[in-house]
Amino acid sequence: MVIVTHEMSFARDVANRVVFFDKGVIVEQGEAKAMFAAPKEERTRQFLSKFLSAGHGAQ
Fold this sequence. Notes:
The chain is of the alpha+beta class. It has helices at about 10-15, 30-35, 40-55, and strands spanning about 15-20, 25-30. A two-stranded antiparallel ribbon has the order 1-2. The N and C termini lie far apart (about 25 Å). Keywords: ATP-binding, Cell inner membrane, Cell membrane, Membrane, Nucleotide-binding, Transport. This is Polar amino acid ABC transporter, ATP-binding protein. It comes from Pseudomonas syringae pv. castaneae. It is a peripheral membrane protein.
């Protein structure tokens, strides 16, 4: 199943794998736990830092 969302807490809780797109281009993909814990690409880190700074925290 494929789900498209900007709800990072939902994605973190239910996904096995995630694909991060920016302007229609795949920036990073991999295991959800690994990507939320330590994203490799700067653009992914920037996006997730907004999520983390919003008080949702990493789990």
